[in-house]
């Protein structure tokens, strides 16, 4: 069973996230997608980061009616920083060999992967789907980055959307619809007392208001 793993701060989750999840799930025939908010992201400052339990609550309420999409508290249960390789290994341990995992990540996260713990193990552990909003990066830029920072053994397939390697997992490139919504935008609008209706799921809007987040 093909299963996507999508981590992030989700600070907060917004409708852009929802649209991308639906698109990638269909495009790669993923039967399941797990969203796991980071408890303590090692690569992002903690300023204006909503409590982890609040972010998990927002994700959980937003995906409960999405077929095959689930929220996971796997990183909240673990003490210390949230490292992706540890999360991948935990999913494999918890779910056995019945699931074929794919790691979903945005282009920003992918180009920041040089700072990640044990990144070489990530590329050996699971296939990666890099989600590009519109056509933010030319394929040559991605190829150069992979060659320099991941492995020179990757080669681009004829379809120009997948890099393969003899000893490592493939890297898929998925051009997702460009949606002009970001978590930074949402936080800014909340701080300025501007409406976020239609930009986030209704439960996210309610939780932000009820708990006075991002003020």
Account of the 3D structure:
- The protein is α/β, with parallel strands linked by helices and 215 residues long.
- The chain has a single domain, classed as 3-Layer(aba) Sandwich (Rossmann fold), CATH 3.40.50.620.
- Helix content is 37%, strand content 19%.
- It contains eight helices and eight strands, in the order βαβαβαβααβαβββαα.
- The chain has an eight-stranded mixed beta sheet, with helices on both faces.
- Strand 1, helix 1 and strand 2 form a beta-alpha-beta unit.
- Helix 2 runs antiparallel to helix 8 and helix 3 runs parallel beside helix 5.
- The mean pLDDT is 92.
Shape: globular
What is the CATH level 1 assignment?
Answer: Alpha Beta
Summarize model confidence as the mean pLDDT: 92
Following the backbone from N to C, one meets helices and strands in this order, namely: EHEHEHEHHEHEEEHH
What's the structural domain tally?
1
Percent helix: 25-40%
- Reading side by side through the largest sheet, how are the strands ordered? 3-2-1-4-5-8-7-6
Return the structural class.
alpha/beta
First-residue to last-residue Cα separation: 42 Å
Beta content: 15-25%
* Rg over C-alpha atoms, rounded to the nearest angstrom: 17 Å
What is the β-strand count?
Answer: 8
Instruction: Provide the CATH topology.
Output: Rossmann fold
The name of the CATH architecture is 3-Layer(aba) Sandwich
- Poorly predicted runs are none
The largest sheet is: 8 strands, mixed
**In the CATH hierarchy, what is the superfamily?**
HUPs
Number of helices: 8
């Amino acid at each position: 069973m093909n299963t996507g793993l999508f981590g992030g701060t989700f600070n907060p989750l917004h409708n852009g996230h929802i649209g991308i999840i639906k698109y990638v799930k269909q495009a790669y025939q993923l039967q399941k997608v797990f969203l796991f908010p980071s408890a303590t992201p090692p690569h992002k400052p903690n300023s204006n980061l909503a409590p982890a339990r609040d972010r998990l609550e927002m994700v959980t309420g937003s995906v409960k009616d999405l077929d095959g999409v689930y929220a996971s508290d796997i990183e909240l249960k673990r003490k210390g920083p949230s490292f992706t390789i540890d999360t991948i290994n935990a999913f494999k341990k918890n779910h056995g060999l019945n699931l074929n995992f794919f790691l979903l990540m945005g282009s920003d996260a992918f180009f920041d992967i040089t700072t990640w713990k044990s990144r070489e193990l990530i590329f050996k552990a699971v296939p990666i789907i890099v989600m590009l909003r519109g056509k933010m990066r030319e394929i040559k830029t991605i190829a150069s980055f992979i060659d320099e920072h991941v492995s020179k053994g990757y080669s681009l397939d004829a379809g120009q959307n997948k890099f393969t390697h003899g000893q490592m997992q493939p890297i898929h490139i998925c051009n997702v619809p460009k949606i002009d919504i970001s978590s930074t935008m949402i936080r800014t609008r909340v701080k300025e007392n501007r409406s976020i209706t239609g930009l986030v799921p209704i439960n996210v809007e309610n939780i932000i208001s009820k708990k006075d987040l991002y003020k």
